[in-house]
Amino acid sequence: MSGAVTLIVDDEAQIRRFLRVSLEANGYTVREVVTGKDALSEAAILRPDLIILDLGLPDMDGLEVLRRLREWSSTPIIVLSVKGQDRDKIAALDAGADDYVTKPFSVQELLARLRVALRHAHPETDEAPIFQTGDVSVDFTRRMVTKAGEAVKLTPTEYALLRLMIQNVGKVLTHKQILREVWGKEYEEEVHYLRVYITQLRHKLEAEATRPELIITEPGVGYRLVAKT
Amino acid sequence: MQNNHRTVLKIYLGMASGVGKTFAMLDSARGAIVSGVDVVIGYVDTHGRAETKALLDGMEIIPCQSLYYQGETLQEMDLDAILARKPQLVLVDELAHTNAPGSRHPKRYQDVMELLDNGISVWTTVNVQHFDSRADAAQTITGIPVQERVPDSILELADKLELIDLSPEDLRARLNEGKVYTGDQVKTDTFFRIGNLTALREMALRLTAERVDHQLQDYRQIKQITSTWKSAERLMVAVSPSPLSERLIRWTRRMAYNLEAPWIAVNVETAQSLSPANKERLVRNLALARELGAEVVTTIGSDVIDGLIRVAHQRNVTQIVAGKPAHSPLEGFLRGGSIVNRLIEKSGDIDVYIVTGDQPESTAPRTLVPAVERHSSLPLYMIAVTIVALVTAFSIFLSPILEYQAIGLIELVAVLLIAAYLGRGPAILAAAVSAVSWGFLFIPPTFTFTTMNIEDYILLGLYFVIALFVGNFTAKIRQQEQQARHYAERTLALYTLTRQTSTAINMDDVLRSAASEIGRVFNAQVAMFLSLPNNMLALEPHNCNTLRITEKDFSIAKWAYESGKSAGRFTNTLAQSDATFLPLITSGGTVGVLGIKTLANTWLSRDEETLLETFARHIALVIEREMLDEAAQKAAMLEASEQFATSLLNSISHEFRTPIAAIAGASSSLIDPRMSDAAKVDLVEDIQDAADRLNWLVGNLLDMTRLEAGRLTPKFEWCDVSDLVGSTLHRMGDRLDGRPLTINMPPDLPLLEMDFGLMEQVIANLLYNAVKYTPTGTPIEINAAIEENALCIRVTDHGGGIAPQDIDRVFEKFYRVPGVAAGGTGLGLSIAKGFVEAHGGTISVANLTSGGAEFTIRLPIKAQPPPAQESKL
Question: What pTM was computed for the model?
Answer without folding.
Answer: 0.48
